[in-house]
């Protein structure tokens, strides 16, 4: 069908009754029950995802954002129509939010496809939501603009700033070590999340919002404006006006999300010392576009990119300070020599044009210059070795430097249940030099790849003052956490990876400089142990869990369902000049 004849607005995707005119007649009859007139229905129709939920405080401001987008859409002559999709919050998702990300991606994609809309505003924020929405947008290729809900403001406790959830972990560690009492931990609990919005440290939500803006899928400023500021609503009004222009003159996600713009996002990931989770999500988003995210190249890229942003958990500040210092654009101004500046953005301008137009502010010096970085190279590293044949990651910017080269005795936990039962056992045979190993917490194992990679320090060691140990697993870790933690070991134990055969007392070598994670067991012994592993038996016979367990891919493919992935024919990242 030619562009001219492609149905638009209310005429898109008519329900099949064998008579298209009748389908349109019926559709209009029903929508008029909501009070819409023909004049309204003839306008470009702008879908707005409604991810508000009483179970999702990170999206508590979504109703206000929707109202603001609607104002902008109406000002520009469009017709706004919001529609619900799944909403996923980290603390209200059993077994894990990751288990539900693909469900949200499919839900969002199919609702965008099923209902008549010419362009869509995607409002998300909590960790898995924007990745799920962009997986949908990439698959569908309809004009979209992302509005993150924005970061929370910080709280205060005894004269110090507090933020979710780096300080949740820090204070819980103090409580476990007996350094603070029940009353104080209760007081802290009241202060950690003082407003609606996403975690205000450089956790997954902040990381994703900054990367998405760098990739060109949000208007400038989107990532850092605090959730409760009036400016976020004015930004949303701007998006409302711009999305109508995109409905009339489409720029689609495939034109914006290219190997080059994904490279820009990955450069930002390194420079902000962002969350390890972003690697999995961007692998999944890129895969929807037929782009394979090459983690070896990602690692090489990181060796050129300094960490510039001084935010918790690797630094000292919070997102509200980054906002006051100019947000993402201040970071990009420092990164210009590394970026593909000619990438198109949803504004219709190139990334380079947007960076040049951004005002320069520097109140707190949150964003360091490239000559005076927080850390000379990128915050994340890709590891491999006989323990992780298809890779693993470590956020070395948040690790204890003295542990980045370490040889230790394995103390093994077979599952999360085993960990819960034994980690605080006073008789546990463990010292600070050992390596804590958690198995069966990967995409299939848990299932849902929980953020369990931040294994707690055994209580008896914590009480003796131990703050960090080398910990390895096939799990993920919250972007708000810190420590010498090797994650995403692939293949996972439950998928027959070598992690499954590690035994108590085996020696493990971590060498981040050499990008190596190695089990000091002979190849022959590894093969013998692998052959002796019990065969896994699929006990789930029906439902979403069956679909999930049968089709979820490993971390190196983004943990999408295998049947949702196209063939991967292109590669990212592409360093500037290659
Ligand atoms: Fe939603 Fe942290 S729990 S962003």
Q: Short description, anyone?
A:
Helix content is 35%, strand content 13%. The chain is α/β, with parallel strands linked by helices.
Q: What ligands can be seen in this structure?
A: FE2/S2 (inorganic) cluster
Helix content: 25-40%
Our estimate of the beta-strand percent is 5-15%
Please summarize the sheet with the most strands.
Answer: 8 strands, mixed
As residue ranges, the low-confidence spans are: none
Mean pLDDT: 95
Structural class by sheet pairing and helices: alpha/beta
- Topology, number of strands: 16
Q: How would you sum up the global shape?
A: globular
Note the gap between the termini.
38 Å
Could you tell me the radius of gyration in angstroms?
24 Å
Number of H- or I-type helical stretches: 20
The side-by-side strand order for the widest beta sheet comes to 8-9-13-12-11-10-14-15
């Amino acid at each position: 069908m030619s562009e001219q004849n492609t149905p638009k607005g209310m005429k898109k995707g008519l329900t099949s009754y064998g008579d298209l005119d009748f389908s349109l007649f019926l559709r209009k009859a029903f929508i008029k029950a909501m009070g819409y007139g023909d004049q309204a229905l003839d306008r470009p129709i702008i879908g707005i995802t409604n991810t508000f939920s009483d179970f999702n405080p990170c999206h508590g401001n979504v109703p206000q954002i929707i109202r603001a987008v609607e104002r902008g859409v109406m000002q520009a002559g469009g017709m706004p129509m919001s529609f619900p999709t799944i909403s996923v919050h980290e603390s209200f998702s059993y077994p894990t939010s990751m288990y539900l990300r693909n469900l949200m991606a499919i839900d969002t994609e199919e609702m965008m496809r099923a209902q008549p809309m010419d362009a869509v505003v995607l409002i998300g924020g909590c960790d898995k939501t924007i990745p799920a929405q962009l997986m949908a947008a990439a698959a569908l290729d309809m004009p979209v603009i992302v509005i993150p809900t924005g970061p929370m403001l910080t709280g205060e406790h005894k004269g110090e700033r507090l933020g979710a959830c780096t300080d949740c972990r820090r204070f819980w560690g103090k409580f476990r070590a007996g350094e603070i009492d029940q009353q104080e931990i209760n007081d802290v609990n009241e202060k950690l999340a003082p407003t609606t919005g996403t975690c205000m440290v450089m956790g997954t939500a902040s990381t994703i919002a900054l990367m998405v803006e760098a990739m060109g899928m949000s208007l400038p400023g989107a990532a850092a404006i605090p959730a409760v500021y009036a400016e976020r609503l004015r930004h949303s009004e701007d998006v409302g006006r711009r999305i109508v222009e995109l409905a009339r003159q489409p720029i689609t996600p495939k034109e914006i999300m290219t190997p080059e713009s994904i490279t820009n996002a990955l450069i930002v990931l390194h420079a902000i010392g962002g969350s390890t989770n972003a690697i999995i999500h961007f692998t999944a988003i890129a895969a929807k576009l037929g782009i394979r995210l090459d983690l070896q190249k990602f690692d090489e890229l990181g060796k050129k990119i300094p960490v510039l942003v001084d935010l918790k958990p690797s630094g000292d500040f919070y997102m509200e300070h980054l906002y006051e210092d100019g947000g993402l654009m201040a970071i990009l101004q420092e990164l210009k020599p590394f970026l593909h500046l000619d990438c198109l953005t949803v504004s219709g301008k190139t990334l380079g044009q947007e960076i040049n137009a951004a005002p320069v502010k520097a109140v707190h010096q949150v964003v360091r210059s490239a000559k005076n970085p927080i850390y000379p190279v990128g915050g994340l590293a890709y590891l491999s070795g006989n323990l992780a044949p298809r890779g693993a990651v470590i956020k070395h910017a948040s690790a204890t430097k003295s542990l980045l080269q370490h040889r230790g005795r394995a103390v093994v936990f077979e599952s999360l249940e085993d960990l819960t039962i034994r980690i605080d056992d006073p008789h546990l045979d463990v010292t600070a030099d050992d390596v804590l190993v958690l198995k069966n917490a990967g995409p299939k194992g848990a299932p849902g790849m929980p953020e369990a990679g931040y294994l707690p320090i055994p209580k008896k060691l914590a009480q003796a003052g131990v703050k960090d140990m080398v910990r390895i697993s096939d799990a993920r870790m919250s972007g708000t956490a810190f420590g010498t933690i090797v994650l995403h070991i692939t293949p996972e134990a439950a998928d027959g990876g070598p992690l499954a055969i590690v035994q108590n007392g085996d020696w493990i070598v971590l060498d981040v400089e050499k990008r190596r994670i190695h089990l000091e067991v002979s190849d022959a012994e590894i093969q013998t142990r692998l052959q002796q592993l019990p065969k896994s038996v699929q006990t789930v016979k029906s439902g979403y869990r069956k679909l999930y367990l049968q089709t979820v891919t490993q971390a190196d493919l983004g943990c999408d369902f295998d049947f949702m992935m196209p063939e991967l024919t292109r590669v990212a990242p592409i360093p500037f000049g290659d």
